Each structure stands twice: as structure tokens, then as C-alpha cells.
Description:
Number of strands: 5
Structural class: alpha+beta
Order of helices and strands: EEEEHEH
Helix content: 10-25%
Amino acid sequence: xxxxxxxxxxxxxxxxxxxxxxxxxDAPELFGLAEYLVKGGWARRIIVTPAIPADEPxxxxxxxxxxxxxxxxxxxxxxxxxxxx
Length: 85
């Protein structure tokens, strides 16, 4: 996936415009110019991470490990000094 950052067009696109937006790298609207647009700074690559399917439960072991890690890294409260402000 790439995100086109500017309204691009010119000789490379036969004077047709590529509007700003998100496109698959092989989208016909990009006229095969995805890599060219990224290298030229007119677009940037977007890394899409696949979503976890809803029918797969999150491991309770992972959840418990995160709870333990959170408990170990809880910030301590500030202590007041005796005899002063």
C-alpha cells in the first residue's frame, strides 16, 4: 500500500491526475508508478498489519504475562521528607 501525498500528474500519467489517497501498489490508478512516486517523495509506503480474526481468542497466558509486567513496572509514589516541605 502507498499513500499519495500530493495530487500528482504529468507526462508519466498521460496528463491524468492521481488524487491524494491510499492505493494498492498495483492499483491501475497509479499507472504502474508506485515505486517512482515513493522514490520521488510524492508518496510513502504504508505497512498494513493483518488483523487478528475475531474467532481466535487472545491467549490468557499472554494476558497474564502482561498483567505481571505492568505490576512490576508500576511507578512508585514520591516520599515526603521528614521535618520539611
